[in-house]
UniProtKB/TrEMBL annotation:
Keyword match Isomerase: no
Record-linked InterPro entries: MFS, MFS_trans_sf, MFS_Transporters
Protein name stated in the entry: MFS transporter
Pfam families: MFS_1
Swiss-Prot/TrEMBL keywords: Cell membrane, Membrane, Transmembrane, Transmembrane helix, Transport
Amino acid sequence: MSILNAIPSSSLAGRPAAERTVDAMATTTEIRPRALVRASGGPRYAVALAVDALGTGLLRPFLLLYGVMALRLSAPVTGIAMTVGVVMGLVCVPAVGRWLDRGARSTVVAASMLVRVAGVALLLATPTGNVWLFATAALFLGIGNHAWPAAHAALVATVAHGRERDAALAGGRALRNAGLGAGALLATACLVGGTTALQALAAVTGLAYLAAAALAWSVRVHAHPAAAAAKSRDDEPAPRMRALLAANVIYVFCLNVPEIALPLVLVTQMHASPVWSAAIFVANTVLVVTLQVPVTVLMSRFSRRTALALSGVVLAASYLGLLAATSLGHGWGAPAVAAVSVVCTIGEIIYAGSATALVTALTPAHLLGRALARFQLSTGFGLAVSPAVITALASHGSAALWGGLSAATLLSASAVATEKDQGASRAGLPAGGTGKAGVRVRRGG
């Protein structure tokens, strides 16, 4: 059973087979939830994702508070330790890519979760005032957070193909955002307990990661590159995708707009109530959870590269809209910013639904791990530098912030749209499963 219902086959009669296949995928409109769960790795894997996201939501937004309140570290020292941990965690990503290219799938997902279990254990064992152990714990958490996206995308690409794979990746993102939001809300309610509550949240997070790792490992998805494909393409390098990777560094700034840019502008420049920032963040989460799959399915009418370029145009337009909104002043400014932020979230949703999908479509299955690792490096780098860039631009005024982001994003969208794919036929190859990609899937449990 397909995730998506296509247009009636009668409307495609008399047309070439390849064209009928493309049109059927391009006009899919209806989502089949059960098939979506199966294409995403199955029910147990979906539960693993939800539990992992819930645990992450419990701790990640409050890790800085843990360092300040529970460990009595200064805020600057805590922030530096966290940043170092996140950046150093990127070093492991190439190794994850090579592991994935040897066929591992659910094992790598489980390992990314177990690494975070070790990080939480170190966090709980860190004595008051010890910044080095805290930094080491942040490093382990960073390694797990960077390894997970590539491993998850590779697993989904192995069990699903074509536009079903795109929808499955979108479904995983929606589920993860729901878990993150629920975890953050639960943690916020528990924070009245002070230091003891923070330590309890960390412990629960560790248990959640452990349970999620066990569930993910039990799925037992493993890809075996076929001998013929491996022999014929053994010396073939992964597609470079230089423009795509460079553009992705700019694109991912949109993920930090609701969390960093908008609160910074609303509170420090517009002197609006922090309630507006909280409302925008909640609205962003709700929109991603509810619209990520439908919008991704809707955008399947276009090529993935076109969708990704379009997302850049939408994001750039939203940045210009935010520039106009911030000029309205205290009275109407905050409501206008909140309204325009919805457009920014739509751009984020289109970006998230097309970027990873484009990478998996362009890459031969036996090279998928390295390609996803390179993509995660660009994502991680963009997320790491975006807070510093956003705050630096904001210090020069709204025009520098929103105008600069809009120009950079439009330039990135143009680079994505004009980049030539290495081997145009790759966009139609399934990145996993059986067939031309040369991968056989073994599932157990």
